[in-house]
Design brief:
With 389 residues, the chain is mainly alpha-helical. It is built from 12 helices and 5 strands. It is 65% helix and 4% strand.
Length: 389
């Protein structure tokens, strides 16, 4: 648009309308008041040339065609156009992909917890149970790589060095959670583990030096308070089970943070990353499992479980081992797309389905105060997620 008409030269070139090419630029009426024309342009225009503006004869009603060009040193246009923000198809597809990951992750986790608790009730050896879970996942991925179902990752010594602290934290968290579930109800373990965002924020603040807005810190109060209320009113409270859940929280926070850092700049996908993690964790855990429990205890416990449950016990062990690997594999595929804190929130929301399903399946008695504590902790998690956004 034209904001001003500036004359850099007093001369004009006025050409009759009938003397131009077929597409003249514009027609100027000799009676137009240019100061009131209302045309807008920020660049000055030079009207060039040589005839007297009013001396031309033969024009019809004084109509003339006037050619113009922009001055060589005119001021450039300064126009900012704000286009409405739109979510592209790729972004929508990415959100849908993450949503599918989360739903699958939660469903597989429910199945794992049900079978894991059944196995631990009949076979109270959490160290061996944890070892079998890692062994099953390692075997699944080795077969997948050998059969070309999945592409084997390209790793080096530096990769395994970076992975070691992640595997160590994963091993501790896995064993601690299994010990907790062998001593207390599944619902109680997951109520305590719903406090994981609090551990995540505290670790990020005091160890990694990250800062968060005040609403984030305030949202931790109902999480911690709800977990404490549930623990105080738990009918089958066990200190070993409680401490196992707390240690698992801390270990998994470090695992998630180290995993996210370790995955940056690496060509290894989330699925293969967790496969390598399982193998390294298995190497770490196996010697300790043998030292703590040992083959003699396992053999005696296995015979007892088979005599009480029957052949179905074998399928319970297989199911809990396979589903443990599957749900963790999907969770790492999610972690490949999101931040550690968002992962902790998704992990906490997942526990709602686990808590509810375990109460229904195992018919655990729950006091109203205990349920209130769980609800407060979950509400705090929701507030936390909102404060983070």
């Amino acid at each position: 648009m034209i904001s001003s008409l500036m004359h850099s030269s007093p001369s004009f070139q006025v050409i009759p309308k009938w003397g131009l090419a077929k597409n003249p630029k514009f027609v100027v009426h000799n009676h137009v008041d240019w100061s009131k024309a209302g045309v807008l342009r920020q660049k000055p225009l030079n009207l060039v040339s040589g005839f007297d503006f009013v001396s031309l004869s033969g024009s019809k009603k004084g109509d003339f065609v006037c050619e113009a060009y922009e001055a060589d040193h005119s001021k450039p246009l300064d126009i900012n156009i704000d286009l409405p923000a739109q979510v592209g198809p790729s972004e929508a597809a990415q959100k849908l992909k993450i949503g599918v990951y989360f739903a699958t992750w939660w469903a597989l986790n429910v199945v794992f917890n049900v079978y894991n608790k059944k196995v631990l009730n009949a076979f109270p050896y959490p160290w061996l149970t944890s070892t079998l879970s890692l062994a099953a996942g390692s075997l699944i991925m080795l077969v997948s790589w050998a059969a070309r179902i999945a592409e084997a990752p390209k790793t080096d010594l530096e990769f395994w060095k970076t992975l070691f602290p992640v595997a160590l934290a994963h091993t501790i968290g896995h064993v601690a959670a299994t010990i907790s579930m062998s001593k207390v109800a599944v619902s109680f373990t997951h109520i305590i583990k719903s406090g994981e965002p609090a551990f995540s924020v505290l670790v990020s603040r005091f160890i990694l030096g990250e800062h968060f807005p005040m609403p984030v810190y305030l949202s931790l109060l109902p999480i911690i308070g709800g977990c404490a209320l549930s623990a105080a009113t738990e009918l089958n409270f066990n200190m070993t089970g409680f401490m196992g859940a707390m240690i698992s929280n801390l270990a998994f926070v470090f695992r998630n943070i180290f995993s996210k850092k370790g995955m940056k700049g690496k060509s290894v996908s989330g699925m293969n990353y967790y496969a390598c993690l399982s193998m390294l964790s298995l190497l770490i855990l196996a010697p300790f499992a043998i030292a703590v429990e040992g083959p003699q205890m396992w053999a005696a416990g296995w015979q007892t479980a088979i005599s009480q449950i029957g052949p179905n016990f074998v399928w319970w062990v297989v199911a809990q081992s396979v589903f443990y690997h599957l749900y963790n594999q999907v969770s790492y595929m999610s972690l490949d797309q999101i931040s550690p804190l968002t992962f902790s929130v998704g992990n906490t929301m997942k526990r709602i389905s686990v808590i509810v399903s375990s109460i229904i399946i195992f018919r655990n008695p729950v006091q109203p105060v205990n349920a209130l504590g769980a609800a407060i902790a979950v509400a705090g998690t929701f507030l936390y997620s909102q404060a983070k956004q």
